[in-house]
Amino acid sequence: MQHRFFSTLIGLALVLTAMAQAQVKYVFYFIGDGMGVNQINVTETYLAALKGQIGYEPILMSSLPVVGMVNTYSATNGVTDSAAGGTALATGHKTKNGAIGVLADLETPVSSIAAWAQKAGKAVGVATNVAITHATPASFYGHRASRQMYFELGQDLCHSGYDFFAGSDFHKPYTKEGQPSLHQQATDAGYTIVKGYKEYMKRGRKADKVILLQSDEQNRKLDSDHLPYALDQTKDDLTLEQIVRAGINFLSSKSTDGFFFQIEGGMIDYACHRNDIGNAINEVLDLDKAVKVAYEFYQQHPDETIIVISADHETGGLVMGRGAYELHTDLLRYQRRSIDELKWLLNQQYQRAPKKFTYAAVQAQLRNLMGFGAGITLTDKQQERIQDRWQGIERAMQEGGKVTDRINDLCETAKHILSETAMISWASGGHSNGYVPVYAVGPGTEVFQGRIDNIEIAPAMAKIAGYTVE
Known about the structure:
alpha/beta; Alkaline Phosphatase, subunit A; two-stranded antiparallel sheet
């Protein structure tokens, strides 16, 4: 009798789960490139420190009801790259490092959850704040043996037929063989290319298919590789938050059956590769802002929407602590620009007026943009390291050397000092095999609790949404 009772309960639970899954129309899949559990931890620790507290101040992502941790190794390496990591998250298959949308034999193509959604009649969007042909977004539409095949991946994008793309631009959109540019090929494939959020609102919303890109002016500065870091953005820059708003607007208009929308916060990885701690925190917060836009949509359609957030790998081997049992993450509030932007600004300052480029001028920039001497007190040894780098700049100016390289050296030293003062350690400038998180909300997403492998996420999402896994 008891056995029959529990069998009935289990059967009822399965029926209720199936009913919930049948109602899911809207799927958001966020990927924080390079976002390990410590990237979340340091961000929340920083927010608490700003309030004068020891502990953590939760961000929206980590406050979602479903929390798990994910293994990220690839088919061939203990430490994955973004291509293999992205392919695992997109297709449910592990592959060789460097490969996009193919198995480890580098030949057998595997389809992604975006393609499964398209076949299920859903509108499909793929977005990022880096180039739309970079590894993670490309894993949702591309099939190439190498992530470096940017032009070919761009052609895959054009042939995908997905409804909405967004990012900084195509990476390397031209070839030497005289083929039409990827911009032209996208236009020929029926895509309307718009530059910036305002232009999307003016003429992108009514397009058949759209590609939303950063302005040409900003792309010239950044070599079309990524949007500006959150720390460096101006009011005219395209943001990840705007991309999500545009994507929801566009995809909602394209299909009454719902949509699948993948969004990458790719700049977390960039900041962590550079061991740029204040910048990395702000990139996590920037992704969280984008998640909030999706969460607002979820609140309006809670029985029809799922949001899943994970990462392809951890970057930098980030650890809070440097031996002493203390942290000073509150000092990171004084970092007002990325280290990349600091390099660019100092080099521009030198090129515009070499004779006025003095140690006092450099100190002023470090004070204003890094807080050195204005909130952050340097030790004598740290000051000596900055002065030593300045002497290298002086010698290069006097002897006709590579001043740019010496300016960059000084900025690198400033970056390391900033981590030291906050008591942050980095293991490397590359990836690690650290756990990454998975956060989720919506019907059926409890399957993501506990420890899972990255290849489990896409098939589980597809099952919840009613897509056929291929």
